[in-house]
Amino acid sequence: MNLTSDNIAPAHEAVLEALAAANRGPARPYGHDDVNARVEAMLSEIFETEVAAFLVTTGTAANALSLAQMVPPWGAAIGHAEAHVMHDECGAPEFFTNGAKMVGAPGLDGRLTPASLSALLARDFWTPPTHVAPAALTLSQATEAGTVYRPGEIAALTEIARDKGLRVHMDGARFANAVVSTRAAPADLTWKAGVEALSFGFTKNGAMAAEAIVLFAPDLIKNLAERRKRGGHTWSKGRFVAAQIEALLADGLWLDLAKTANARAAELALGLQARELRLAFPVEANEVFVWLPAALHEALKAKGAAYYVWSSDSTAPERRGGKDEVIARLIASFATTSKEIASFLSAIDAVRAPGKKASRSPGTPLF
Predict the structure, then answer these.
(1) Does 364 fall in a domain?
(2) Which keywords does the record carry (predicted)?
(3) I need a labelling partner for 314 at 20 to 30 A (CA). Which of 22, 87, 177, 283 fits?
């Protein structure tokens, strides 16, 4: 009953096989090998345009290096107030940009809105030289609330950004889950909607340690190789990073794995609603946020259930919890089974009042 994160999942067997294959014989170092070249070609095909790809092993590096290409030390990157890049990178974006600010804007369900973005940009504290200048917009896909942006929503935000001269970055740690959820083409969720750089996540979706900085704007390529090297994120044996991504991109495996994770999350959400437990956010990818009465939360922990207790100011008024409730964040991965979901739901049944039966409740709509 471990639903703490998709990071707890093992590496997929195809990834391990690819690593073993990459280990046979020598290859040119520092990303100049044939596997890296094939991965860049595969990414260009998936995104329906020629891209440049810089591979790293952590999402933190992908986000921080991407933003450093866009934001000067006297600039600011704007994102949702609760975005991962704002709070969970231990200051890496500020470090790699040499001191730029991260500025958050509000938005229900973890999503920025054109109104909130426009309101922030219209404020009078951007005047030089005494204030930082907004330089980039960063969007999380999927968001920290487990919701997703549709192509039209992304385009509306990037249009505002472009009008103000901002570059656009997307933190795609769970990009695969968003593609599956929206049923939109990767191109429609990125460059066609105005995104210029994507941190394409693979580690949460079957890789051992592999992420790709995918650049759609050619001018962002300049000196990124040097910035990556200077930041300590250039692997000498880069084929081992590329091999993981190649295995996941081959035959659409990355989408199959994300589809499984999303399906398990949907099963979990439906089971929670059937037990009259309220969801804090719509379930649109592989994350489920549910309000648990304190007593139920403590009982589940005592039974060995593992998950994180969450806090958020972006829940809609109709989905806010009671005084003695906590938000549990439950995440399904490609390796999560229906049996594991059933075990968690059975644990809830075991600690509820005798005779309490599961019954379908309207609750928060899924997707």
Answers:
(1) no
(2) Lyase, Pyridoxal phosphate
(3) 177
pTM exceeds cut of 0.85: yes
Say yes or no: 130 and 56 in one domain.
yes
Q: Say how many C-beta atoms besides its own lie within 10 A of residue 321's C-beta.
A: 15
Query: Please, are residues 198 and 56 in contact by the beta-carbon 8 Å criterion?
Result: no
**Bridge partners (DSSP) listed for residue 290:** 279, 328
Determine the Cα–Cα distance for residues 9 and 333; give it in Å rounded to an integer: 7
Verify that 83 and 143 share a domain, yes or no: yes
Q: Are residues 29 and 173 in the same domain?
A: yes
In a domain, 5, yes or no: no
